[in-house]
Design goal:
The chain starts with a helix and ends in a 10-residue tail after the last helix. Helices cover 35% and strands 13% of the residues. It contains 13 helices and 12 strands. The strands form 2 sheets. Strands 1, 5, 6, 7, 8, 9, 10, 11 and 12 form a 9-stranded mixed sheet that branches. The chain has a 3-stranded antiparallel sheet with strand order 2-4-3, with no helix packed on it. By secondary structure, the protein is α/β, with parallel strands linked by helices.
Length: 397
């Protein structure tokens, strides 16, 4: 008899043996059937990637005048339109773009932008106005509104800590860097013994919540460990922590894990100094990992049901600084990848370098319009309820 049948025919199903009644929906949620429909993969470029040196206006003299030592020579730019091209280390992404599987949105940001890493990242992760402080993330609120009976790992972050993006009030995402290590930690005999005495504290709501969280974590740890062993990728991924995260995501997706949202981060983009050596390596790490990831998804027939969103908390200033780097800016570019994009290619024109905002690129498109598109047209959720106001969608998904 397998585990599902055992639970169905035993007292565990009613919570009488080990798992209390109030835990059934959450803890046993991890035994739900595998995910169905679409998956969202969010990739965060932490530190403020220099979008102007990633998507390059190679025909614009102002760009070259503002960056005499940092600009990418025109002959090295991977030209993908008459005026815009990719950084040479973005070569692995070119095929996706030319095959109509990538949408690039330029000049994206929000009103009254903040140049602080922490505050701007909070704004992007919560979807708030610049003067509003929220303790829940936009995808955490999606879980709150749409996932009352979902598993505790419906949204999974490939890290040891959980980003604000995936934190809700009643529901939250799950953070995991290594499934085997997580199972070992969560399966500690001491913690298991504590769980067996949950009924001693049923009268205390706060303590009961802690038991619910602990048992849900144990269930998810066991489930994710089993799923992580179910499939081994045949694609050759680059040797980087970021690539390893994407490989693990692809393996879980191919194993048909009960996960709808994945989240991963690539840091190091705060290039105040030595940008011409640091940023190319990071862009190469990103591009080669994503290239392998997409190949993996396509090999297993998953790409058409996957949407990949890549963002950074802000761009950089147009002029280079005295340390061969760039300082914190405002507007940036954002990338969407998938097999069912309605408007592939460049969604809008490149940056207007003649019309700057105190030396920064001016934003033209509010990033929450992208979120609204994803929530409404990909996740099939109430975007207005989750974002707190109605944003006009872009029609790209």
């Amino acid at each position: 008899m397998n585990r599902r049948d055992f639970l169905k025919h035993s007292s565990l199903a009613s919570g009488a043996l080990m798992i209390p009644q109030f835990l059934n929906a959450n803890a046993l949620g991890s035994l739900h059937p595998s995910r169905s429909g679409k998956a969202l993969v969010v990739l965060q470029l932490t530190g403020g990637n220099d979008g102007l040196n990633t998507i390059i206006p190679f025909e614009n003299d102002i760009y070259y005048d503002a960056r005499p030592r940092l600009s990418i020579p025109k002959k090295e730019v991977i030209k993908v339109s008459e005026t815009l091209g990719f950084h040479p280390q973005f070569a692995s992404i070119r095929e996706l773009f030319e095959d109509g599987e990538m949408t690039i949105i330029n000049n994206i940001g929000y009103p009254d932008p903040d140049r602080s890493h922490f505050r701007s990242m909070d704004i992007w992760q919560t979807g708030s106005d610049a003067d509003v402080y929220l303790s829940t993330g936009w995808l955490g609120r999606y879980l709150d509104n749409e996932c009352n009976n979902c598993s505790g790992h419906t949204a999974l972050e490939m890290d040891d800590t959980l980003s604000l993006t995936l934190k809700g009030v009643s529901q939250t995402g799950f953070a995991m860097n290594d499934a085997k290590r997580l199972k070992k930690t969560a399966g500690n005999r001491y913690l298991k013994a504590i769980a067996r005495h949950h009924h001693d504290h049923d009268h205390d709501d706060n303590v009961a919540y802690l038991y619910r969280t602990m048992i849900s974590t144990q269930e998810s740890a066991d489930y994710l460990f089993q799923k992580s062993k179910a499939h081994s990728s045949k694609i050759n991924y680059p040797d980087s922590k970021f690539a390893d995260s994407l490989k693990k995501i692809a393996e879980l997706m191919t194993a048909d894990a009960d996960i709808k949202i994945y989240y991963a981060e690539l840091g190091g983009f705060d290039t105040h100094a030595g940008q011409n050596t640091r940023q190319p390596k990071l862009l190469q790490t990103y591009a080669e990992a994503v290239n392998a990831f997409v190949k993996d998804l396509k090999r297993n027939g998953l790409f058409d049901d996957t949407l990949i969103l890549t963002f950074s908390e802000f761009g950089r200033r147009v002029k280079q600084n005295a340390s061969n780097g760039t300082d914190h800016g405002k507007a940036n570019n954002l990338y969407l990848m998938g097999g069912k994009l309605k408007q592939p290619g460049f969604y809008n024109e490149g940056p207007d370098l003649k019309n700057l905002d105190d030396g920064d690129l001016q934003f033209q498109i509010d990033f929450r319009r992208v979120y609204a598109d994803i929530l409404n047209n990909w996740l099939e959720a109430d975007d207005k309820k989750i974002l707190g106001k109605k944003f006009e969608t872009l029609g790209i998904i």
